[in-house]
């Protein structure tokens, strides 16, 4: 009987152990994290831009931006470098609602944006550009240094004023929607002028091609000659402009010369008139001058006075096509006929109106 009782005690102990073992095996530790952010507002410690007094289309500006965030630089969501033309009086003190999508890719503004990975310049509808700055590598602060090339289409501001000026600014936004905003070089009441710019682009071979001229002809004797390939003749300008032109003094057919002279009072002379309409009109057509004076050419005549309405005042970044330049020819009655074409150069320049 004694042995049986001991067996019962041992059996009870064994059962208790069997119940406790799963409780010990299933127990585990879990680690959690609590990040108590200081939610600090980012700061722009340094913002300098040189080459903006005045800004010059195709010219460069050296930019340096130092940004700090107490929560770490990784907390920065975006950095926007802004160049824009303003007609609003006063300085902007902050632009919290200004977003990248507000850039209309026009001649009125340009943006370069840091997207927490890299700076990206607006690549569309603009001739602005920039170099690529170094990327941050941790820490709370980083300095971006790069060179911006001002776009050809940046609106001309000959004399800056409170209601006609260019502005430059940088805006920083962090992950908590905190923002910082600054004008460069500690500026206040910023009024940046921008120089005039004009450029003409033409395909080779654009020009008048008379094939049936005769001796003694008058301007109105042949239909107006429009430039061949004139659709590819275009002007890029950031303000009002005029188109001026003049002719070579001597045209040559390979063996002999004829002279360009508005008087056509010698046997081998001819002249050209230009207008922006197809019918010769003595009241509007102008005779081209020649380049025979001591300065290389006489003062060129202005084709569009006032500016031809179809050409526009100022242009888009990719230029405005000039499709209505018409030329008329007259020759001396004693001009020698030739089976070979005479060729010469008619020069066009775009100038500040």
Shape: elongated
* Assembly classification: single chain
Strand proportion: 25-35%
Number of strands: 22
Number of domains: 2
Low-confidence stretches: 1-23
- Which series of helices and strands comes N to C? HEEEEEEEEEEEEEEEEEEEEEE
Helix content: under 10%
Mean pLDDT reading: 79
What is the straight-line distance between the termini?
127 Å
Query: How does the major sheet shape up?
Result: 6 strands, mixed
> How does the helix and strand content classify structurally?
mainly beta
Q: What is the gyration radius calculated from CA atoms?
A: 37 Å
Number of helices: 1
Structural notes for this entry:
The model is unreliable at about 1-25 (pLDDT under 50). This protein has one helix at about 1-25; strands at about 45-50, 60-70, 75-85, 110-115, 120, 130, 140-150, 165-175, 180, 200, 225, 235, 240-245, 250, 255-260, 270-275, 285, 290, 300, 320, 325-330, 345-350. It folds into 2 domains: about 45-185, Sandwich (Immunoglobulin-like), CATH 2.60.40; about 200-350. By secondary structure, the chain is mainly beta. About 5% of the residues lie in helices and about 30% in strands. A hairpin with a 4-residue loop joins strand 8 and strand 9. It contains 1 helix and 22 strands. The longest helix is centred in the N-terminal third of the chain and has 25 residues, at about 1-25. Strands 11, 14, 15, 16, 17 and 21 form a 6-stranded mixed β-sheet that branches. The protein has a 5-stranded antiparallel β-sheet with strand order 5-4-3-8-9, with no helix packed on it.
């Amino acid at each position: 009987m004694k042995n049986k009782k001991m067996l019962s005690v041992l059996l009870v102990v064994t059962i208790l152990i069997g119940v406790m073992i799963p409780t010990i095996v299933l127990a585990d530790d879990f680690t959690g994290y609590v990040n108590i952010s200081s939610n600090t507002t980012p700061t722009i410690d340094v913002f300098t831009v040189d080459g903006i007094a005045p800004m010059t289309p195709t010219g460069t500006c050296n930019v340096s931006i130092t940004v700090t965030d107490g929560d770490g630089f990784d907390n920065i969501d975006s950095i926007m470098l802004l160049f824009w033309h303003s007609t609003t009086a006063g300085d902007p003190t902050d632009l919290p609602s200004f977003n990248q999508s507000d850039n209309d890719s026009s001649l009125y503004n340009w943006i370069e944006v840091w997207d927490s990975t890299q700076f990206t310049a607006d690549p569309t509808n603009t001739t602005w550009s920039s170099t690529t700055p170094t990327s941050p590598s941790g820490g709370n602060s980083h300095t971006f240094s790069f060179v911006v090339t001002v776009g050809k289409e940046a609106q001309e501001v000959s004399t800056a004023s409170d209601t006609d000026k260019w502005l430059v600014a940088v805006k920083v936004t962090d992950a908590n929607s905190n923002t910082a905003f600054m004008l460069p070089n500690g500026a206040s009441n910023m009024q940046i002028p921008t120089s005039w710019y004009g450029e003409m682009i033409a395909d080779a071979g654009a020009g008048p091609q008379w094939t049936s001229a005769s001796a003694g002809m008058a301007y109105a004797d042949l239909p107006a000659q429009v430039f061949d390939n004139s659709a590819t003749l275009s002007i890029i300008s950031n303000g009002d402009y005029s188109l001026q032109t003049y002719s070579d003094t001597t045209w040559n057919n390979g063996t002999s010369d004829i002279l360009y002279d508005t008087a056509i009072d010698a046997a081998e002379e001819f002249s050209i008139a230009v207008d922006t309409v197809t019918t010769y009109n003595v009241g509007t057509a102008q005779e081209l001058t020649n380049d025979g004076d001591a300065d290389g050419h006489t003062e060129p005549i202005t084709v569009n006075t006032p500016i031809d309405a179809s050409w526009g005042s100022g242009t888009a970044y990719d230029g405005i096509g000039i499709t209505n330049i018409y030329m008329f020819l007259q020759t001396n009655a004693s001009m020698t006929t030739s089976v070979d074409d005479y060729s010469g150069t008619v020069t066009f320049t775009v100038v500040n109106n």
